[in-house]
């Protein structure tokens, strides 16, 4: 299906420009120097296993002290297996977790 769509695009490009379009399609992904460090996923979620304290503080209800407790918890216990384990961190109760659940991932 994707190949058919790409063929149609190449045909249309050649048709409208009057030139034949041939060759490989190459995609290059470059990291920008000013880009923030990768801490989440493609949907913009914050990965609680890899996020820095600064990235965690960008979440609602997480300040410097709580972000430090999250990173300390990770260092002591290893990565979170599921998001709900975040509630094992002192200071993260059910109400705060409910606010964060749709903003985080593991």
Tell me what you see in this structure.
The protein has a single domain, classed as DNA polymerase, domain 1 (Orthogonal Bundle). It is mostly helical. The chain is globular, with a radius of gyration of 22 Å. The protein contains four helices and two strands.
List the helices and strands and how they pair.
Layout: H1 2-17, E1 46-47, H2 53-57, H3 64-77, H4 94-100, E2 104-105
Parallel strand pairs: 1-2
Distance between the termini: 32 Å
Q: Please report the number of helical segments.
A: 4
How large is the radius of gyration? Answer: 22 Å
CATH topology: DNA polymerase, domain 1
Measured as a percent range, the helix fraction is: 25-40%
Q: Flag low-confidence runs.
A: 27-38
Strand arrangement, major sheet: 1-2
Would you tell me the overall average pLDDT?
A: 79
Order of helices and strands: HEHHHE
Concise summary:
The protein is mostly helical and 106 residues long.
Please describe the structure with a list of short key phrases separated by commas or semicolons.
single chain; about 110 residues; mainly alpha; DNA polymerase, domain 1; two-stranded parallel ribbon; 4 helices; about 40% helix; globular
């Amino acid at each position: 299906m994707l190949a058919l769509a790409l063929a149609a695009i190449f045909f249309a490009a050649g048709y409208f420009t009057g030139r034949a379009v041939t060759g490989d399609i190459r995609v290059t992904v470059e990291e920008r120097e000013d880009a923030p460090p990768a801490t989440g996923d493609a949907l913009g979620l914050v990965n609680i296993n890899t996020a820095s304290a600064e990235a965690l503080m960008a979440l609602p209800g997480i300040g410097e002290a709580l972000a430090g407790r999250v990173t300390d918890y990770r260092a002591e216990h290893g990565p979170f297996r599921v998001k709900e384990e975040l509630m094992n961190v002192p200071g993260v109760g059910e109400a705060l977790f409910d606010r964060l659940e749709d903003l985080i991932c593991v």
